Amino acid sequence: MDKPRVCFIIPPSPFLLDERVFVSLGILKVAGALEAHGYPVEVLDLSGVENFEDVAWRHARWESTNTYAITATTPQMPAARKVAEAIRCATTGEASLVKLILGGPHITLAAAAMKQEKPGLDGRLHGRGQKAFFDCAKIFDVTVAGDGEDAIVQAVEACELLRSGETFNAGMTGLHLDADDPKAERPLFLSKRRIEELPPPARHLVDLDSYNYTIDGVRATSLVAQLGCPFACSFCGGRASPMLRRARIRSTESVLAEIEHLHVTHGYCGFMFYDDEMNVNKELVTLLRGVIALQKKHSTEFRLRGFVKAELFTREQAEVMHEAGFRWLLTGFEAADPRILDNINKKATVEDNTRCVELAKAAGLKVKALMSIGHAGESPETIAAVKRWLLEVRPEDFDCTIITPYPGSPYYDEAIKAGDTWTYSAPKSGDRLHMDEVDYMQEADYYKGQIGGGYVSHVWTDHIAKNELIDLRDGLERDVRAELNIPFNQSRAAIRYEHSMGAPGPIPPNILRRSA
Ligand code: B12
Ligand code: SF4
Predict the structure, then answer these.
(1) Is 231's C-beta closer than 6 angstroms to any atom of ligand 2?
(2) 247 near 280, Cβ under 8 Å?
């Protein structure tokens, strides 16, 4: 029997200033793995598509695809839900034939949060992680937590069984696959060896040219050389998810082969390493020496960007990075007050952070300082410390976000409910962070709005209210940018899919691409 066509969907992210900067590599890895199993696959890339529900509706109405596989981070969930509803609506009457799979960070983290569930002050389980998980399981027929590359084959097969009337999990209408459990009897969680065997992200299934990213004027794209970060910053998603916590470092050879392919086949000379923290990789210098050799081999010059962990940064790393083509370094310094850094469990001290900027600058690297406020114990004074530190170390760029406690982060998973409020307490200092209950299926938390309107805070502390956090963030951004002469980022207009309603018409190639 012919294998069914599977349509992978990247939902839009209207909360981003520009949605076509970085391709979602995870879903392309999954699509590539399924394609390698002989399935016809396609990707509906709704990034930046204003009327994305129309496109999803039309695809479901006119194309002969019964299996949709959607990816989503937490803030993409409202759009992913709308996509699912549009597909169901377009196929009313055939509803039992169309099956929807959900994978990606949100469901992975919701499943991890559910496993972590803690009782409230009343000693009862309030089931916040459980709710986040089942909110998804109610909409999608098959949910996949963790690595999707091997799990997708089982997920697609499960869709076939569901179509034939099979039920799973004692009464549940759908199925959950846990690919985030390395200890499972037959793990779908990928070992380092298995990662090496899998194909690279199926970039041929998206319109790479519609993604605009440059590093120092050089056309650039992103890749991931290292999966997972072993640290446990309290705001960071996935500290209880092996997929996001366990460092799985790809071999230098396979990373170099991917860079060479992107250079030779697509002409890229700019590469953004989207590793959580590049210098968690003990072989970083060896990898970068390989990148230097690659440029010599092709008589070209690359421009690179990536993130490093401040306290692990060394002079040698800085110098080899510059030689390899880095001109920018990105670091999540987050805070500039020792107590807040401790509450975050950042491990880096203020001195480590200052030293990191100095090492970078001495090696000719510009620094983008990533700061965040709204942590346990945050106060106007600790925010003033962020401003002072930025003006002291003078990064070439920075941004400052208000944190959002997403499922799967310690702030969310370890919070305890009292009344309508959830409160996280920093283990050592006891400093508290309070947060609203947010329905992540409905609300895409705006985290990078324009000054004076776009920003929302769902957190506050004993020393600072929500609105004050927003005002102080806006003021900090405005003052530091003015003082350091750093312009604001500009947003890009959305793509609008023009069509006449009711009639089938082709979906343009910057939105839909198929395997050959
Ligand atoms: C690159 C990156 C970005 C890029 C590109 C985003 C993207 N969608 O790829 C940019 C800069 C745009 C970005 C922005 C943001 N990001 Co970001 N980002 C990352 C980062 C560092 C790497 C992503 C990656 O490529 N990973 C490697 C691939 C292989 O993994 P993957 O994408 O998770 O995919 C695997 C599985 O999830 C699964 N899977 C994925 N899709 C599907 C689909 C199906 C059907 C199946 C079966 C399986 C499956 O299989 C894949 C292969 O194994 C991750 C951290 C991390 N280590 O993953 C954070 C991360 C995804 N980002 C995060 C966040 C919070 C954000 C922002 C909200 C901003 C912020 N405050 O940091 C925005 C939201 C953007 C958006 N569109 O939703 C969180 C997500 C938390 C959450 N609850 O969803 C992460 C996990 C960081 C963290 N540890 O907290 N991000
Ligand atoms: S913020 Fe960075 S260092 Fe901290 S846990 Fe997340 S990825 Fe690791």
Answers:
(1) yes
(2) yes
| Ligand 1 centroid, distance to 73 Cα (angstroms) | 6
The answer to whether the predicted template modeling score (pTM) of the entire model surpasses 0.90 is yes
- Domains of the chain from N-terminus onward: 6-197+495-514 (3.40.50.2300), 213-484 (3.20.20.70)
Q: Is the CB of 158 under 6 A from ligand 2?
A: no
Is the shortest distance between the CB of 275 and ligand 2 below 6 Å? no
Tokens in use for 452? 């004076």
For ligand 1, mutation pick of 73, 147, 233, 244 (most atoms within 8 Å of CB): 73
Q: What are 211-245's pLDDT values in tens digits?
A: 999 999 999 999 999 999 999 999 999 999 999 99
Spell out the alpha helix ranges (H) of 37-92.
52-62, 77-90
DSSP-assigned letter for residue 251: P
State whether the beta carbon of 233 lies less than 6 angstroms from ligand 2. yes
Nearest to 457 by CA among 474, 477, 442: 474
Number of H helices, E strands in the chain: 16, 20
Residue 306 token pair: 């990536």
What confidence tens digit (pLDDT) does each residue in 293-327 have?
999 999 999 999 999 999 999 999 999 999 999 99
**506 exposed, middle or buried (CB, 10 Å; 0-12, 13-18, 19+)?**
exposed
Ligand 2 and 229: CB distance under 6 A: yes
